[in-house]
Design a protein that fits this description.
By secondary structure, the chain is α/β, with parallel strands linked by helices. The protein folds into two domains: about 45-220, no CATH class; about 230-270 and about 285-305, no CATH class. The protein has nine helices and nine strands. It has helices at about 45-60, 80, 95-125, 140-145, 180-185, 190-195, 225, 240-250, 255-270, and strands at about 35-40, 65-70, 90, 170-175, 210-215, 230-235, 280-285, 295, 300. Strands 3-2-4-5-1-6-7-8-9 form a nine-stranded mixed β-sheet, sandwiched between helices. Strand 8 (about 295) and strand 9 form a beta hairpin. It is globular. The mean pLDDT is about 85.
C-alpha cells in the first residue's frame, strides 16, 4: 500500500506557461509545428511526392516560408520539390558539417531580421501614436525613425504568413543513405545535434526537419537517437514485419499493438490492386487530439475502435 500527502501551498504547484515558446500556429486538422519528421518506404514508393504535398500544404496555410534541402539527387527530383520554390542558395548536395553549419547560420540570420522588424514596428507604433506627446520621445528614437522613414511608411515583415510575419523554416533531407549525415554517431555529429535542438536554434525561431529514407532503423536507416525524438512518421507499405513490430513497441504507451496493426492495415490498403500501391500511414506522435494520431496519407483520419 502506498500513501500520498498532498501539499496545499501554491508554491509547490507546477506553473504551466500560457503559450509554448516554440509554437507555430497551424490549422485545427494540421499537425503541430515544429516537426522532426521521417518518411520511410521502399525505393520508388513516393516518399518525395507525399513530403512535397505535406510542405505545400503548410505553405498554402501560411505556416512555411523558406525551405532548405540536402540531397544528392536534387536535379532529378526538381519536378517533385519545384512547387516549394527552394532558392538555389538553399540547396546542398551533401550533409557535410560545413553545410549543416551554413543552414544554422541562415536560420540565425532570419531570426536577426525578425528581431530588427519587431524593433522597427515597435518604433513605428510609438511615433505614430497620437496619444503620445512627440516632445516626450527620446530624440535618439526620433532620429532613428527619421533615418528609416518610419514617419511616412509602416515597416513590413519579410514574409506575409499566418504567424504575423515570423519566419517558418524547414529542412528536407532526401536520398542521403550512406552519407556521413547518418553514419557518424553521437551528438557530436552536426546533423544529429541539429535534430536534437531543432526547435531551439535561432534563439527559438527553430527549424522543422523532414527526412526521406528507405529504412526506418538498422544499417542506413534513421539513427536511434533521432527516432526517439521524431514527432511524426510517414510510413509506406512494409514487407518486413519486424519494422512494424519495432514501431508498435516504440509507441506502445499510446496505443495497443493490435489496434496499431489494424490502423496500419487500413491506412496502407491498396484500393487498386492492379496498380502499384502508394498509400502511406501517417503517425502523429504528438496529436492535437487522440483521434488524430493516425492518417491514411494526409487527408483521411484512421481511428481504431
Amino acid at each position: 500500500m502506498v500513501k500520498t500527502v498532498k501539499l496545499k501551498d501554491e508554491a509547490y504547484k507546477i506553473k504551466l506557461p500560457k503559450k509554448s515558446a516554440f509554437t507555430i500556429e497551424t490549422p485545427d486538422n494540421q499537425v503541430k509545428l515544429h516537426q522532426l519528421n521521417a518518411v520511410c518506404s521502399v525505393r520508388g514508393y513516393g516518399k518525395g511526392v507525399i513530403l512535397s504535398s505535406l510542405l505545400q500544404g503548410f505553405k498554402h496555410q501560411g505556416c512555411l516560408d523558406r525551405v532548405f534541402i540536402i540531397s544528392p539527387t536534387i536535379e532529378s527530383n526538381r519536378p517533385i520539390f519545384g512547387p516549394l520554390e527552394i532558392n538555389p542558395e538553399d540547396e546542398y548536395s551533401t550533409g557535410d558539417p560545413a553545410n549543416i553549419l551554413d543552414i544554422i547560420r541562415k536560420v540565425e540570420e532570419e531570426q536577426e531580421e525578425w528581431d530588427q522588424y519587431q524593433e522597427a514596428f515597435a518604433l513605428w507604433r510609438i511615433i505614430n501614436d497620437h496619444s503620445i506627446n512627440i516632445n516626450s520621445i527620446d530624440p535618439k528614437i526620433l532620429l532613428k525613425a527619421l533615418e528609416n522613414g518610419y514617419f511616412n511608411k509602416k515597416p513590413e515583415p519579410k514574409y506575409r504568413n499566418s504567424q504575423g510575419g515570423r519566419p517558418c523554416l524547414a529542412l528536407i533531407v532526401d536520398d542521403c543513405q550512406g552519407d556521413k549525415i547518418y553514419n557518424a554517431t553521437g551528438s557530436k555529429n552536426p546533423f544529429i545535434n541539429l535534430c536534437l535542438r531543432h526547435r531551439h536554434i535561432g534563439k527559438g525561431l527553430g527549424l522543422s526537419i523532414f527526412m526521406c529514407c528507405q529504412t526506418y532503423g538498422g544499417s542506413g536507416g534513421i539513427p536511434r537517437i533521432i527516432r526517439q525524438n521524431i514527432t511524426s512518421l510517414l510510413l509506406g507499405e512494409q514487407k518486413n514485419k519486424e519494422v512494424l513490430d519495432q514501431i508498435a513497441d516504440e509507441i506502445g504507451g499510446q496505443i495497443e499493438k493490435e489496434k496499431f496493426m489494424e490502423a496500419y492495415s487500413r491506412a496502407v490498403h491498396n484500393d487498386r490492386p492492379n496498380e502499384q500501391n502508394h498509400n502511406f500511414m501517417m503517425i502523429d506522435f504528438f496529436p492535437k487530439r487522440p483521434d488524430m494520431m493516425f492518417r491514411r496519407n494526409l487527408n483521411e483520419f484512421v481511428i481504431p475502435e
